[in-house]
């Protein structure tokens, strides 16, 4: 079956008064153009002139990168003419043209897979003058969940779609933006029904079976045996659920295509999956069949909600940041973990593949100018070169491992600062909990805040509030964090077993962050948005430093799809 032209998207990746970023992936090298319209009720380019375009001749930008034989990612930066701004508090629409077909011609505005809401001819969004409504969530594991009266739980990201669908024209009722605060995929823990399909799709889109240094031929590794293979290769990974760990760039990319809803990835039947396991006796067969059956129920329900998820992502400016499961569990847990993986050719390559896929599917749209052309070239040259070793492979690993700081800002009122708490860690000891942001990360916070304050809409504000997205809660749930500290301190559990990597786990790191907020940034109040811990809670606190008091609120999301406590 041939791959569809549009593999994923369009996703409305970033929107501010000066530009709108639209992302999509295609299976062929084609021309793509984006346009923004003042009226989403019109019929797009057929009946009205755009108020912004990605056409480079008119100030926009259209960037496409080849990442495989049948994988091309595109970022369209749509800008108003003459360095103007898009209107605020007004419902806007946009259209995307692929070669000669717009969204209507691509059949994306009708039927089950329509990305437009009833009563509107185009996907829509708005730019708020004052941010009052937003959505956020984290942790989407396709094969996890629990049973409700009506059956398996759905992907809660579809709730955003239902909220918008009730009244797409009511700007006070639909989210102005969506923050996905980590673990958008579970690379280290892939379900049995999905893993064979991802392996197959990964090879189809990249055009080769990638080989990983120090690992045997991946095709020869039986299903649910990758954890043992990673251990034998001395990768340094510590995930406790690594039996079906993504390894190649193609597999990571295939996972994103599956969870963003643009490509229907068929689930593998049990009859077709048995031969992929090592030899099993009757008891082992029954055990794996039971696991498969449960995972199949949840994954099928997850897949059924993907058209709604795709529509929500197409109609809401979406901002993303990674956490550990987007790469591997416990990523950069402590200095010992970091050094072990960085010293392993196998570990380095898998982490590099994960970060390359993160850039392509998540990071690029957050802050396009923050990604150097040398990094993009290093990724494209390696994944298209189809070689395990060599200069391109060495540059690929080096560029991605040396890339520190994937954070960015979102300039609305109040402004939002999104933290990278994984690649900017600082280690005070080999095994102890890390500072989640080093001095360079804290320096970035101050510089980014100073740049924000220079913008005209903020320069007049004396008491400016601040939203901070941190994948790990800054103000955590004290009983759980105390128990984690107790178990690790008295050697009852290893840090990786209890995810002992909270902000307060390293009090110096927590204090340094709060000192910067109170003494250097000094917002009128601060809201932290987080996920990661698989249970939801809210906190309210005051932090006092050098005579200054900062009022803070912590809002933590339970899993969008998985087991957790709300």
Structure report:
The protein is of the alpha/beta class. It has 16 helices and 20 strands. The strands form five sheets. Strands 14-15-16-17-19-18 form a six-stranded mixed sheet. A four-stranded antiparallel sheet has the order 1-2-6-5. Strands 4-3-7-8 form a four-stranded antiparallel sheet, with no helix packed on it. A hairpin with a 2-residue loop joins strand 1 and strand 2. Helix 1 packs across helix 7, helix 9 packs across helix 11 and helix 10 packs across helix 11. The longest helix is centred in the middle third of the chain and has 23 residues. It is globular, with a radius of gyration of 23 Å. The chain starts with 5 loop residues before the first strand and ends in a 5-residue tail after the last strand.
Strand content: 15-25%
Question: What coarse outline follows from CA principal-axis ratios?
Answer: globular
Radius of gyration: 23 Å
Spatial ordering of strands, largest sheet: 14-15-16-17-19-18
Q: What is the number of strand segments? A: 20
Helix content class: 25-40%
Taking the alpha carbons of the first and last residues, their distance comes to: 41 Å
Q: What is the count of DSSP helices, taking H or I runs of 4+ residues?
A: 16
Could you say which structural class the secondary elements and strand pairing correspond to?
Answer: alpha/beta
Low-confidence stretches: none
Mean pLDDT: 90
Indicate the multimeric state. Answer: single chain
**Biggest β-sheet: count, sense, barrel?**
6 strands, mixed
What is the compact description of this entry?
The chain has 566 residues and is an alpha/beta fold.
